[in-house]
Request: fold
Amino acid sequence: MGNSASGAAARPFITHHNDYDTDVFLRIAFETGLKKATVGRFEKVFEIGQDFRNEGSDPSHLQEFTQVEHYAVYRNYEDNMRFTEKMFDYLLEKLELPKKLNVKDKEGKIKEVDFTTPWKRIDFTKGIQEASGIDITKYGMNDADKLRADIRAKKIEFARMDNMGTTTLIDYLYKKVLRQKILGPAFIYNYPVIMQPLARISDTDNNIVEQFQLLVNGREMCKAYSELVDPILQQENFDKQAEAAANGDEEATASDDDFVTAMEYGMPPQS
Reply:
């Protein structure tokens, strides 16, 4: 249990601590805790453990799930993509598995996936525009109503969209029109800066963060980025997410004051 449910965009499980008379949360990610360890100069950290997300169920989601999360300082997201490919090569070799495997999609349908590296890379913003006709780079944090109207104008609907902020609308639009069509393995990259309050802004485009996801038969296998290590920008991003939460977005990323304080002491670049 923690004092905030930070480190990911997800609805948390909330309970009440009677003795301290305060609400506490089951963690939705390891992220902020592991990154605080890097401030203490642990240069490579990882954890295998449980996360809890108060969301819907399907063949790829349970509310309690096991995950491995790792951070390595002085690496960026490009290094991490190469590391991920090497890790899969290593695992398949050690487990004596073929590169071509049958994998179920989110509906339980099986397709053959070829894990031979290197893997395809797909631009997130361009992919959504090609699939839906909507250019998500034109929408800011305060443009949720306009984006919602534009999505509906394209005859696209998904559950609970009336209460979503801009970032959650973009995420669900992606899941609706693009993710399910990708067989992969494929890295999805080039995410709008408003999508990820914990990621580093690109040196070449201030509207994009250095983030990727690995997709296999429409399912997210991992998500990673070059980490944001600027405490001033981090607090500003948390504040924007808090506005979305106040407006009813249940999946906005929560703030974490201890995390920002740790970052102020000096957090090394990492992925």
The chain has a mean pLDDT of 89. The chain has one domain: 14-266.
